[in-house]
Design brief:
single chain; 5 helices
């Protein structure tokens, strides 16, 4: 990992009430795979897509009566950047383990519907998998093996 990797950060504050908007923003941030640095400050590795996504969330925050700013920055050291990457990888690792478990549970009773659901889940995880753990390949192989068992096209 390069020491100079840029990150896009979202600093935000939202009113406590109503909580609906706050919960919606937090769910959206989780789907994006952000790493929370401190309360109200999240980060993603910077690219055009992640920057745009956090700008959209910032707009949603302000529309809900909150305050939000989007920043570009770099961790102060390789160790800090490594820590951020490890935190992000751990979250997706757990999600990949869940897919592996679901594939194993399906076993001989696998259907095309099950394979489709697991492929969609792999896609959702992949959208926020910036630092792929080894479990990614294991999960993909487990789903591919299920698909082969029911002859579902890739």
């Amino acid at each position: 990992m390069a020491a100079s990797t840029d990150w896009v950060l979202l600093a935000y504050r939202m009113p406590r009430d109503p909580s609906t908007a706050r919960v919606a923003v937090w769910r959206k941030l989780r789907r994006l795979g952000v790493v929370q640095l401190v309360d109200g400050l999240v980060a993603l590795p910077a690219d055009a897509r992640t920057r745009e996504q956090l700008e959209w969330v910032a707009e949603e925050v302000t529309e809900a009566g909150g305050e939000a700013t989007v920043w570009l920055g770099r961790p102060g050291s390789r160790a800090q950047e490594r820590m951020l990457a490890e935190r992000m990888a751990e979250v997706v690792r757990i999600d990949y383990l869940a897919v592996i478990g679901a594939a194993q549970e399906a076993g001989g009773a696998v259907t095309g519907r099950t394979v489709g659901r697991l492929r969609r889940e792999l896609h959702r995880i992949g959208q926020r998998d910036f630092f792929p753990p080894a479990e990614r390949d294991v999960a993909r192989q487990a789903v591919d093996d299920l698909a082969a068992a029911v002859k579902v096209p890739g």
